[in-house]
């Protein structure tokens, strides 16, 4: 008797604070890794016009039509939304980040209050699953009461009975999963009715010898390079004796040191201006022996955010929509490492 092929479980997804669609890119990876998994994005929320244009350039529904952007999450009436099984959201991290002002829900820009809108929507829609992301500072110090309120709200909404079976948490670092960026992010997952017994949030780490140098463009564009005067200024300002290196390394501007472990520091928004790439001096020609320092290219930033982009840039997983260096760097700094997302989602769904 022929075996009946099991129908794939199609997860309906609403992507909050979508950016370039980090959850969507991660779901594509999870779908490749799992045999009985499929998904559809039923809507997303993004109020930044450049971010939403980037999302639309990269994601369509099954019929090739644009996915509806519900816009500013603070103005969404959850009763108007289509039903969905999974809510994903990397709610703005600046209120809880060491790079931000650390003002939490008292953040004058209102970003810290965004978590309340996630709860407001999920309280009505009751998705079966919730996946949230933030910086690791969200669970510590003066922000712990906000985290504890999240757990309390989830219990009241039926996502568990205790903190342990309501909200799974783990801090994952990109460099532990094959991408040489030191990027620590807190991931939180809840399931309606409570988490499965013995649920383990952390995927097995992936051993890799790859370093930042392996993720750089073959031929970086000339505009990225600092002038001799700019390099001299950088040395004086940050008390650096020399930028002469034997292999490409990352200069941590914020901490004023060259990262000799071969990893990139965390990709951040361009206004933080936190890193530079140092290249070995040329061995021949008129520039022989000169120090070489430059900005990181857009393609390099997105490679370090887990995207499949060849070093000659001929094959690129993401459509950049012709956007500027500044806008795309902002998206990378605020985005999800899609490699980590795919690994995490596949790991979670294997246990459900």
Automatic annotation (TrEMBL):
Top-level class of the enzyme under EC nomenclature: transferase
Biological processes, Gene Ontology terms: DNA restriction-modification system; methylation
Catalytic center residues: 93
Record field: catalytic activity: a 2'-deoxycytidine in DNA + S-adenosyl-L-methionine = a 5-methyl-2'-deoxycytidine in DNA + S-adenosyl-L-homocysteine + H(+)
Keyword Methyltransferase: yes
Superkingdom, taxonomy of origin: Bacteria
NCBIfam families, A to Z: dcm
Protein name: Cytosine-specific methyltransferase
Organism listed in the record: Hallerella succinigenes
Species classification: Bacteria, Pseudomonadati, Fibrobacterota, Fibrobacteria, Fibrobacterales
């Amino acid at each position: 008797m022929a075996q009946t092929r099991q129908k794939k479980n199609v997860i309906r997804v609403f992507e909050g604070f979508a950016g370039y669609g980090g959850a969507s890119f991660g779901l594509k990876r999870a779908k490749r890794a799992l045999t009985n998994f499929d998904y559809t994005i039923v809507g997303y929320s993004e109020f930044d016009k450049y971010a939403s244009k980037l999302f639309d350039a990269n994601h369509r529904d099954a019929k090739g039509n644009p996915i509806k952007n519900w816009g500013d999450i603070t103005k969404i009436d959850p009763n108007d939304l289509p039903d969905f099984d999974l809510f994903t959201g990397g709610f703005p991290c600046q209120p809880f980040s060491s790079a931000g002002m650390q003002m939490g829900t008292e953040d004058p820009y209102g970003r810290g209050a965004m978590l309340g809108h996630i709860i407001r929507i999920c309280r009505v829609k009751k998705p079966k699953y919730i996946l949230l992301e933030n910086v690791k500072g969200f669970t510590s110090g003066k922000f712990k009461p906000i985290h504890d309120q999240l757990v309390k709200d989830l219990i009241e909404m039926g996502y568990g009975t205790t903190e342990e079976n309501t909200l799974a948490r783990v801090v994952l670092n990109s460099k532990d999963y094959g991408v040489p960026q030191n990027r620590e992010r807190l991931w939180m997952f809840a399931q309606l009715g409570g988490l499965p017994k013995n649920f383990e949030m952390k995927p097995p780490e992936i051993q890799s010898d790859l370093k930042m140098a392996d993720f750089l463009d073959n031929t970086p564009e000339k505009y990225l390079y600092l002038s001799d005067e700019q390099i001299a200024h950088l040395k004086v300002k940050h008390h650096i004796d020399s930028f002469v290196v034997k292999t490409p390394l990352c200069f941590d501007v914020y901490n004023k040191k060259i990262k000799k472990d071969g990893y990139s520091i965390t990709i951040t928004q361009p206004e933080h201006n936190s890193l530079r790439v140092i290249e070995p001096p040329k061995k021949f020609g008129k520039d022989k022996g000169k120090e070489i320092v430059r900005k990181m290219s857009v393609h390099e930033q997105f490679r370090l955010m887990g995207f499949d982009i060849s070093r000659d840039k001929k094959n690129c997983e993401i459509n950049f929509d012709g956007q500027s260096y500044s806008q795309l760097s902002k998206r990378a700094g605020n985005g999800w490492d899609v490699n980590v997302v795919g690994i995490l989602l596949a790991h979670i769904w294997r246990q459900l």
